[in-house]
Protein: SET domain-containing protein
Amino acid sequence: MMNKLLLTSDAVSKEVFQMLQDEIVARLRSVGKKDNAQMVSQTQNHDAEDSLLKWGEHHGVKCKLRIAFYQGAGRGMVASESIGVGDTALEIPESLIISEELLCQSEVFLALKDFNNITSETMLLLWSMRERHNLSSKFKTYFEALPENFNTGLSFGIDALAALEGTLLFDEIMQAKQHLRQQYEDLFPLLCINFPEIFRKDVCTWDNFLWACELWYSNSMMVVLSSGKLSTCLVPVAGLLNHSVSPHILNYGRVDEATKSLKFPLSRPCDAGEQCFLSYGKHPGSHLVTFYGFLPRGDNPYDVIPLDLDTSADEEDGAAQSMSTSQTTHMVRGTWLSRSGGFPMYGLPQPLLSHLRAALGCGLDESTTEADIKENDRVLLETLLSIFNPMLEDLPETDESDRESASWDVKLALDYKDLQRMIISSIVTSCTSALENV
Ligand SMILES: C[S@@+](CC[C@H](N)C(=O)[O-])C[C@H]1O[C@@H](n2cnc3c(N)ncnc32)[C@H](O)[C@@H]1O
Structure:
């Protein structure tokens, strides 16, 4: 829009628009500087990654990025040159996208299309489980560059799960694992018996099935294909972009009609040598741990403590007395993310405060005196502390020596608990200091 205005305005307006554009770009540049994780190596000889880039180039991928290795994040993509706002960092031809449309030409689809209402997502999952072992696959180079283990929450071992007991993440991971186990048991050994040529027993193991599930959870993107269909897809090369809470690439996901390619344009500039990040979506830490196996650096505004509040009210209706109950869930973020730390918000969400003030009979109106306001807020803050203090007590601090010797999954579980503790602790601190002042 700015570029258009700069082209069409008179000289004076042009000067103003140019100043505005420079300021916007400077502000965008300052965002996310904390994200730049330590690069481990740019130059190591990593055959699988080099081959993937060459294979992509050969098939028409256009790329202003190269692959680098980052501490704690595996591979990532780094800008080979400075890339500006609106410029395309990466362009992938539609013919390289693994989607439902590609599936329709496969043996797996022909065998399964009429099988027990199977979904195309499940067929794609089974396709990738097989294709990984197909030596003559068109996507051999892509599969060879994928990790042996994805290390998501779905692969958490018993110690990591034990560390999470009592948290919502524990429930999320257990439910997801049970769902996948059930799905596997519904499919196997049935498919191996019915279609032994296609589904070989040695390929269709639980470990290979879980690998394919983790591949789709951690690497897939929603793409509108040129047919107009919205489809969950694997996008080779683009699957090497890591996530950030302040990403460079935000708006992507529609195949360009003219070029028949998926473009990844920048929403904020990326300097040469800087890691270029994508947004995987507005996910809280629990979702990123379960399905991707990491917690992002920096403040994630989608990290919340869900709070279920019951509102039970006695209602007099003539002679009979009835009881109405409703449940509301409030999402509470760390108070450091809020701009309104003091009275009357205390860094907490307005709907939660209104809900509690009404439930406690502590509403504010013109006739409320200053003394009433203070008393009401004392009751409100004490109620909030009675909710959040026990949560904090249930999350004891991690012993640092435990963390040093821990495995990847236990470390991630402990990091998640630290994050939860930090959010709850910020709420307790806000309420305690406010209580001292009323
Ligand atoms: C789409 S892949 C990105 C490429 C991946 N790093 C690799 O080496 O194949 C998604 C996976 O990358 C890792 N990842 C992405 N963003 C990350 C981040 N900000 N910090 C740590 N790991 C990240 C997680 O393991 C996630 O499951």
